[in-house]
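Hi L.,

You mentioned the student needs an example of a multi-chain input paired with its predicted structure. This one should do, with 226 residues in total across all chains.
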Amino acid sequence: DGGITQSPKYLFRKEGQNVTLSCEQNLNHDAMYWYRQDPGQGLRLIYYSQIVNDFQKGDIAEGYSVSREKKESFPLTVTSAQKNPTAFYLCASSATGGGTEAFFGQGTRLTVV
Amino acid sequence: GENVEQHPSTLSVQEGDSAVIKCTYSDSASNYFPWYKQELGKRPQLIIDIRSNVGEKKDQRIAVTLNKTAKHFSLHITETQPEDSAVYFCAASRGGSQGNLIFGKGTKLSVKP
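Structure written out for the whole complex:
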């Protein structure tokens, strides 16, 4: 379904803990993205990667980190430095060089308890 | 910075009526404008997109128009049905990167039977 998989679907974290969200795609897309969605807000870009071993900060990168060691995988770590981490996190991928849509994973809902 | 403004934030129509959602963007380099539909708790799904070399695009009951000079684009849904009820997001590409999108804050569309 869509070729891009996020896990887990729901995640609970204690304050002060780091947590890693998984994103895997089998669409052979070069570009991958992480967005955060809060109620009443659009999607805000956290990090993106256009190619393996390279990534760029988005609009709200503080408190987050990523890696892109493989083309298929783009995990997001929510660190203890992120002050308000409770949100719905969406991963997306797209082909570069033009002409296709961004495909989204089903999302991970992170709750800090 | 770049942003996308979307209006209205909520829209309620009677089944069979038309619905129009409008967006404006600020990045002159944007060249790709997708519209996503998101049902509660699910991933955004692309419903239609338009590129900057086209002024209008239709797909059955859905159409999008683009005015590059004015930097605005609109989604038109005709003959609305209850299953059209969802949150709709417009987005604009950040320069030429079609997956690196700036999203509007969304419009919650309710279609009353």
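You could point out the following to them. The radius of gyration of chain A is 13 Å. Chain A touches chain B through 29 residues (CB under 8 Å).

Best wishes,
N.
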